[in-house]
Amino acid sequence: xxxxxxxxxxxxxxxxxxxxxxxxxxxxxxxxxxxxxxxxxxxxxxxxxxxxxxxxxxxxxxxxxxxxxxxxxxxxxxxxxxxxxxxxxxxxxxxxxxxxxxxxxxxxxxxxxxxxxxxxxxxxxxxxxxxxxxxxxxxxxxxxxxxxxxxxxxxxxxxxxxxxxxxxxxxxxxxxxxxxxxxxxxxxxxxxxxxxxxxxxxxxxxxxxxxxxxxxxxxxxxxxxxxxxxxxxxxxxxxxxxxxxxxxxxxxxxxxxxxxxxxxxxxxxxxxxxxxxxxxxxxxxxxxxxxxxxxxxxxxxxxxxxxxxxxxxxxxxxxx
Length: 320
Known about the structure:
With 320 residues, the chain is α+β, with helices and mostly antiparallel strands. It folds into 2 domains: 2-34 and 52-169 and 273-319, FAD/NAD(P)-binding domain (3-Layer(bba) Sandwich), CATH 3.50.50; 173-270, Polyamine Oxidase, Chain A, domain 2, CATH 3.90.660. The chain has helices at 2-12, 63-71, 98-105, 146-155, 162-169, 209-212, 227-232, 238-253, 298-319; strands at 18-20, 32-39, 42-49, 75-79, 90-93, 109-111, 116-121, 125-129, 134-137, 140-142, 173-183, 194-196, 203-208, 219-225, 257-270, 279-281, 286-288. α1 (2-12) packs across α9.
């Protein structure tokens, strides 16, 4: 999200922008997956949001983006609270959260399945990808999780100022194991289709994608494990993980599992942060940004992208 926002704003200002994403689909944790099940005469298609589940708006800089997505029917209001209403709209994608990323990317030069393996800077950036393709640029904006960016810079022998390096190394993330469960009948997750569990031993979230409206043909439930469970069971077999979480979720599922998939988010939510909306290093024409620079939410990622674009434009103008 941060990279797409920054790229959109810079391109609107007339700059040539290229977005590189190692994922097969754009969007990172704006993740939606379709799971088809066919047996005999029965066929089910479950649609799952398995990363970010919803978002809200607090900052006025974010509101115009949300208004645009609403106008183009990319998102919709899901509810105004889970259990008890607090009158604060929660939004979700009309066809899943990845739709937001696809909408932002539609007019951008985006390369997916493109893993950057090496960087080189000498008045201009050279970005080398797996397969030895090289991109050149005047400035570079890094928006992966901070540990991944630091590893890439270190592997490329690019040194950051020691004080900044020390602060960035303190940025950390919680892991999350997600299970996508296709059910044979509607779940017992209470309306409007989401429940956040406080102090549960193994589960932090249960989402009903059918009630949410993105999975009209199949009863798809998303289970998010707690950071502690995810950390302790990270290397377990998928089947063992799923069975433990299904047992924990049984009171809310109330259904047989037709099919399931397990996904591991190594860097799910930032738990410690950098103390600014982005990091600019003019001497390297380098910017680092992401939700670990603002807040662990879609809004935080957007605000960091806005800040990165503003700094990026100034860096480009300084090179002119």
